[in-house]
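Worked problem 6 (solution included).
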Amino acid sequence: MLQLTNKYKLYLYLVFFIFLSSIFNLKILKNFEEKFILKKIEINGLTDNEKKLVKNELDFLININIFKLSKSKILQKLNKFKFLDEVYVYRVMPSSISLNFYKTAIQGKTVKNGETFYIGKNKKLINSSQVFETITTPVVFGDFKINEYLKLQNILKDNQFNLSDIDKYYYYKNKRWDLSFTDGITLMLPSKEISKSIKIFKNLIDNDEFKNIKNVDLRVPNQIILTHYNE
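Solution. The predicted structure is:
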């Protein structure tokens, strides 16, 4: 009987020991997990106003375990900020994340349904409410495709045009462009062979014989119509 009592006590002590160990282990685990709760979001590469926009969007991440953060969900949340070109997310142990932002270059400005948008090099329209800087940029009129507009700008740059010399672009339904330059010249391009037409225009304005030009009309193939200021 004594042996059974001793065995019973041994089992009791063992169960009690396991119970205390479990509580102790749970406390250790809880303390360990708390060390990796997100407390700080570091934002790099943005202005103060842009940081506020981003921070407000990501505040829901605070107090989440850093290992449970999904980069894809973070990027999905940031997708609403069209001025962003690239975003890199890094975990900074034990309780921070660092986000490095790279903004797109602004290539123009346009109006859609009464709202002003900036045109990003990333091929996105950026609502003016997300742009806090004063940007001098050309105005683009018409129902154009961003890709076609950026393609036109690349052709102009390839032909050594300074894009800051153009203050207005007009796009027409027949898929052609008019360009208004800051010196007062208007270039009317055809819907096809744009690159060839821009080369012709470049040769004209670089020729000293062609001065005081107001309009250069290249809409008709193999035909150049010039209008001078005194006409």
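Discussion: Residues 13-17 have pLDDT under 50 and may be disordered.
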